[in-house]
Amino acid sequence: MGEKGLQTPAKKLFLWVRKQSKKVKTVLGFVTCLTLLLTLRLLIHDHNHFFVLAELLHFIGLLCLIYKLSTLKTCSGLSLKTQVLTAIFLAVRVFCSFIMEGDIHTILDFVTLVATLWVIYMMKFKLKSSYMENLDTMHYWYLIVPCAVAAIFIHPATAHFFLFRILWAFCVYLESISVLPQLRLMQNVQIIEPFTAHYVFALGVARFLGCAHWINQVYDTRGAYLYLAGRGYFWIPMVFLAEIVQTFILADFCYYYIKSVISGQLLVRLPQPV
Question: What are the DSSP calls for the chain, one per residue?
């Protein structure tokens, strides 16, 4: 049998999509996202579960990294800067959540924070020789400073202490762009090994779930949720924007990840930057 005889329906569909024009691909992507949103809306009735699933997926992605670091003994292809930024926003969120909420999210974030700190320790000390520092080129302050400035001016208008509200906004904004150093490193490398790819894909799906939560909230309130006075007129639109930005940042990688899986390839190959 030839290669065509061995093609699965999913691979045939992907090959058909790849032949389409950019406009058709955009429409197909929009329809796919809309279908997934409607499916999630029918299956998940409590919007809070979207965030729980997103946090669980982030932790599952970290488990892939932990497996890689502990068995393969290499951290090649991983951005230490993304892990540090992740630890920063998780530490801030755990602190704020413990004071302001203290629920299941606090526990999940704390467990994820511990796992992230372990990954940082392994990359910085145990497996330092395999860390691609010369390719991890994005500077921390280019990401941290804009998030801090935005948090000072746009934060939730709740009854909590002023500093806590700023910190909460800061961790939301930082989370939305914390993956950028990892994406920059992967663009420099262009060939991504499986466990790193699984981790980034898990982040992409997690962000899609977070975005789905806000879209459902806005839809259910016919847009009124965006302007709840009790949260500040600009706060919720900024959170919604942050979720959308992070989803789109990761969408391109998720496309190439799915392409590689359907093609039966272990490595994810990214196109050369134009």
Answer: --TGGG--HHHHHHHHHHTS-HHHHHHHHHHHHHHHHHHHHHH---THHHHHHHHHHHHHHHHHHHHIIIII---TT--HHHHHHHHHHHHHHHHHHHHHT-SHHHHHHHHHHHHHHHHHHIIIIITGGG--TTT----SHHHHHHHHHHHHHS----SS-HHHHHHHHHHHHHHHHTTHHHHHHHHHH-EE-HHHHHHHHHHHHHHHHHHHHHHHHHHHTTTGGGG-GGG-TTHHHHHHHHHHHHHHHHHHHHHHHHHHHHTT-SSEEPPPP-
Spell out the residues 6+ positions from residue 146 whose beta carbon is closer than 8 angstroms to its own: 173
Whether this prediction's pTM lies above 0.70 is answered by yes
The two structure tokens encoding residue 140: 């921390």
User: Cα-flanking dihedrals φ and ψ of residue 268, to 5°?
Assistant: -95, 125
In one-letter notation, the amino acid at residue 95 is: F
Residues 39-75 pLDDT 10s: 666 666 666 677 788 888 899 999 999 999 999 999 9
List pLDDT tens digits, range 18-32.
666 666 656 556 566
How is residue 33 written in tokens? Answer: 């996202």
Q: Which range has the top average pLDDT, 1-5, 86-90, 186-190?
A: 86-90
